[in-house]
């Protein structure tokens, strides 16, 4: 199985999104998958201008000559494409969305109905077969991923793909914490991500039990959200104080 993950975090290797991707793909690689992780922030990707040239003038080819010339082939050569993004304004990062828009040349402009009787564009490539979604946010509740859940389910449906896995991590700020009191909980979560990556490749999906465990708070404390807010507010107060001293 070939998995290509397109990471839309502007922080790249230093981001909390990458921490999740690393742990998940380590397990997937252990199960035999070939992994390629691409940081979109390193790529020159011009925004789609909606000219339709890739459909009616030069089918399958955008007017822009940029990194998408190399990235689009990677999509159709992969069994799984992964979208890894931090949550920005309830949605995918701008870098990620820009990349998504430029994937339009991968479909035919003609329309058809899917298995549910809904209209979509005609697919012209056999691959990818699966979509993987990975995201983290700076809020303590999982409910903040409501928009992303719908987005990636729709993307998979319109691409005529199955969702291999959706992994959303609230409280993602803690993933890179240096607080030794919290590190054991973070390491435990990374072990779970590793197991999820292995399971996803081996069984082409995640069990209900694994999904349930992935949705649990990072810290097993009934006051987790309150404690989290207090710590984050304290951190921002310290940063603002430092800025005021400059």
Structure characterization notes:
With about 250 residues, this protein is of the alpha/beta class. The chain has a single domain, classed as 3-Layer(aba) Sandwich (Rossmann fold). Helix content is about 40%, strand content about 20%. The protein contains 8 helices and 7 strands. It has a 5-stranded parallel β-sheet, sandwiched between helices. It has a two-stranded antiparallel sheet with strand order 4-5. Helix 1 (about 15-30) packs across helix 6 (about 185-205). The chain is globular and about 55 Å long. The relative contact order is 0.15.
Number of helices: 8
Cα distance spanning the termini: 52 Å
Unreliable parts: none
- Using only CA atoms, what is the Rg? 19 Å
Structural class computed from helices and strand pairing: alpha/beta
Query: What's the level 1 CATH class?
Result: Alpha Beta
Helix content: 25-40%
Biggest beta sheet attributes: 5 strands, parallel
The percent range for strand residues is 15-25%
Predict the CATH topology: Rossmann fold
Assign an overall shape: globular
Average pLDDT: 96
What is the tally of beta strands?
7
Please state the second-level CATH architecture.
3-Layer(aba) Sandwich
Give me the strand/helix succession: EHEHHEHEEEHEHHH
Strands across the major sheet, in which order? 2-1-3-6-7
What's the structural domain tally?
Answer: 1
CATH superfamily: Flavodoxin domain
Strand and helix map with partners:
Layout: E1 2-7, H1 16-30, E2 34-39, H2 53-56, H3 68-76, E3 80-86, H4 94-101, E4 107-113, E5 119-123, E6 130-136, H5 146-158, E7 162-169, H6 183-203, H7 208-214, H8 224-244
Parallel strand pairs: 1-2, 1-3, 3-6, 6-7
Antiparallel strand pairs: 4-5
Helix pairs in contact: 1-6
